Records
---
Amino acid sequence: MAEKNTVKELLTNEIKDLYSAEKQLTKAIPKMVKGSNNPDLKEALSAHLQETQDQAARLEEISDLLQIKPTGKKCVGMEGCIKEGTEVLEEDGDVTVLDLGIIGAGSRVEHYEMAGYMTAISLAQRLGATEVVELLNQSLAEEQGAEKKLRTIASALVKTAPTEFEIETPEKAQTSQAR
Ligand code: FE
Ligand code: ZN
Ligand code: FE
């Protein structure tokens, strides 16, 4: 395990973590595109795949600036998020409901990434690494944009998704038990 005595060491660890996350996503997003049904969702995910590749390249650039290596760490958090996304993709059912599940998984991914970029930005600011901060901010803005796009699509989809046929309230459940 890498020692962390300085901001630079912690930032290095965060950059490696983000790089691993982005690399994992470049493989996972195409599966989400394939598994989704709504054309807007497919489009949003495809566009974010391109951004994800750019973000990985940006982290390589950042690593050059910091004179570190971006490789050598596995982001287990993202591995978990992707695993949950894979579960969603394996389910059967109403296409709109399934799409909403994919968006839920995608939204978790974006928030996870946003947390990582925000952390790295504050550390890079402390080091006075202006160029690094700039590059990290570009990626953060893309993650925020992707999350917002997903949320917009979800709010449209949820209106057309089938609800439950009958909502079982606690009172109703009691009545049916009494019968
Ligand atoms: Fe990303
Ligand atoms: Zn991580
Ligand atoms: Fe993302």
---
Amino acid sequence: MKKYSVAAIPGDGIGNEVVPEGQKVMEAAARLGGFSFDWTHYDWSCERFAKTGAMMPEDGLDQIRNKDAIYLGAVGFPGVPDHVSLWGLLIPIRRGFHQYVNLRPVKLLKGIESPLKGREAGSIDFYVVRENNEGEYSSIGGRLYDGSPDELVMQQSIFTRRGCDRVMRYAFELAKTRKKHVTSATKSNGISHTMPYWDERFAAISTEYPGFKTDQFHIDILTAHFVRNPDWFDVVVASNLFGDILSDLGPAVVGSIGIAAGANINPEKDYPSMFEPVHGSAPDIAGKGLADPIGQIWSGAMMLRHLGEEAAARAVEDAIADVLARGEALTPDLGGKANTRELADAITAALPAHF
Ligand code: ATP
Ligand code: MG
């Protein structure tokens, strides 16, 4: 029997409530799918930072380097600045393990009230593929003439051929399993070096995929289309900054932040990939059993798919859709009265029917 070794990092706040529920659903999927998990728990978090001055131990990456996957909840704590959790945990893992794809599904499910009126379930179904390792989020730059009227600040963006090509190929490979339509986010009318280069690489990679539909939009109008015409898209590929914006906007237009899933993927599988919901630690509801576990569970479905357990991945996604459509056992963010465990249990109970 196949056994997957997974690092579970619940993190802070509701991460501690949704990760254990996600693990239970993964266990149930494994039993039905004929494989198993070997979990190792890590207390890496802002809470750990407050006690020890570090989010994770110095050899943290080495401790999890050989895992098959990382199942992360959320990191963040009131009073601990965001850059601590970002640079102390998320970015070292994303960059250290070459997780150069950040993947987020945008799918309107029955039973979810979208802020967009008149949209049918199933009419919005696409993925945002964000470049996750380079681009606008480089730390190269600096400040000159500090405090003087001539003060100036510069920040460099880094776009490499390798970096562009590999994330674009990932988008095309994903589209191959779907509607074969890839949309590129650009801003080559305003950004005169990096974005024309991005467009150039998109055109070059497109030629490797004959028969695919491709298009590109400037980021400003693209955000408008996400709201007005979200049914246009299949796979949207974007640089780090533009992808960051689109991958928050996408899930927002299809409903609750509590159900949005995400993955940081190393497609070559030479290092583990990391699966984490879009939401944060939600300190306002932490410890009350109110957290919606669907984002965490859906991220787990993405983990199953990455591990090669497609049937199990699909069963978990279908079980989520099933429970939402029936409108039973929903948490308060979805208009129900159930708690975190009750919603996760309902998804587990729905699983066998979808295998
Ligand atoms: P962090 O600093 O960790 O990013 P945050 O407060 O900035 O936390 P979120 O944790 O994403 O951001 O919370 C935004 C809002 O959405 C909060 O009101 C929170 O309660 C709500 N929320 C987030 N996740 C969930 C969830 N899984 N279930 C229900 N409500 C949620
Ligand atoms: Mg936040």
